[in-house]
Amino acid sequence: MNYSSSRPVRKPKKTLSWSNTRITLLEYCERKYFLNYYTFALKQDYPELWSETLLLKWLKSIEMRVWEKSHFLLSDYLHALKKWEITEEKIEALKDNMRMEMKADFDYSKERDYTDRDDFFGKFWLSEHFYQEDADSLLEPAIEKVCGNLDRFIASPWNEKVQDYFNSAKFVYVEHPRNPDFESMKVDIGKIWLKDVSVLASPDFWVVFSDTDFLILDWKSGKEEVLDNSVSDQLKVYALKTLLKKWLTSLDWINIEAYEVYLDSMNSYGGILKQEDIDWIIEKIKNDVEEQKKLLVEWNAYRNQPVDMVMFRKTTSDKKCEHCTLRDVCQKLN
Ligand code: SF4
């Protein structure tokens, strides 16, 4: 069956947006990008596949859940630390709560009726359960990894450093990953002349030492990306956001230091931002937006209406498809 369509689709509510996650997905697989960000385009002609895609978009593998829960637990800990509420008992209580949360989520996911599409904004916990894979043996190691990530953080020099920041810095922002604030993620990009696009970025930990000195930290879990003496694109975007808050694009007088901290190893990568980093990321965002526009009707970022689905190329990598949470819909669409 050919599921492609050239019929007009429902007008989307939002203008085109750029984020590091979004552009990474576009580079990973255009079909996956389409299914994730333009799901509404399926509704008119393929309501069944539209509702299944809505469900599959919320699924995550247990490995992705480890990353998410590690962020939750570390954020819970840092917020308590910021309020000087941390004791040995409190740390154990935070970990116990996380163990219970993950077990409850797992049971819910395992028992859930995935054919029920009326309730798709619920906790669609594991792609393994949707695809009827045996995940029982994965739960305990996942819980231990999440709790172990917090233990490693507490045992590392970063624990003392963040306490110093809470003590001495002018302002410290700790993210709330359980309740993301999308408004505060918006980057004011008028200064870089991208008026019809919205840019989203929010660091995990942001320290303001003074009007001219900043530190950005981003917690990572999973495969380590070893960057020699350089700062990742993600950190460059956060640094740009910091500058744009001051209506600047130049680092004159401004000092920004930024690191990605891997919770599995507590290795960190990053350094002091240079002007070439800022200039490079501005150009990258502009180029990425042009690439995204090529997949929009009339290249119109404001309307943000996708071209026909067949124009979104599927990856040729079987490895990527093997664990793709959207593979069921993708195969049906073919
Ligand atoms: S199954 Fe493969 S081709 Fe299809 S969306 Fe996923 S990664 Fe892309």
Describe the protein.
The protein has 334 residues and is α/β, with parallel strands linked by helices. The chain folds into 2 domains: 34-155 and 306-333, no CATH class; 157-288, no CATH class. Helix content is 47%, strand content 11%. It has helices spanning 20-28, 30-37, 47-58, 62-82, 88-111, 127-130, 136-155, 157-168, 182-185, 233-245, 275-293, 318-322, 327-333, and strands at 17-18, 171-174, 186-187, 198-200, 205-208, 213-220, 255-262, 268-272. Helix 5 runs antiparallel to helix 7 (136-155). The chain is globular, with a radius of gyration of 21 Å. The termini are close together. 31% of the residues are buried. Residues 29, 31-32, 35, 314-315, 320-321, 324, 326-327, 330 line the site of iron/sulfur cluster (SF4).
Strand content: 5-15%
Radius of gyration: 21 Å
Strand order of the largest sheet: 2-5-6-7-8
Q: What would the principal axes of the Cα set say about the shape?
A: globular
Main β sheet profile = 5 strands, mixed
Number of helices: 13
Helix content: 40-55%
Residue stretches low in confidence (pLDDT < 50, at least 5 long) are 1-12
- What ligand molecules are bound, each kind once? iron/sulfur cluster
The domain tally reads: 2
Q: What letter string, H or E per element, gives the SSE order?
A: EHHHHHHHHEHEEEEHEEHHH
Report how far the terminal alpha carbons are from each other. Answer: 8 Å
Secondary-structure class: alpha/beta
Q: What is the averaged pLDDT score?
A: 89
The total of beta strands comes to: 8
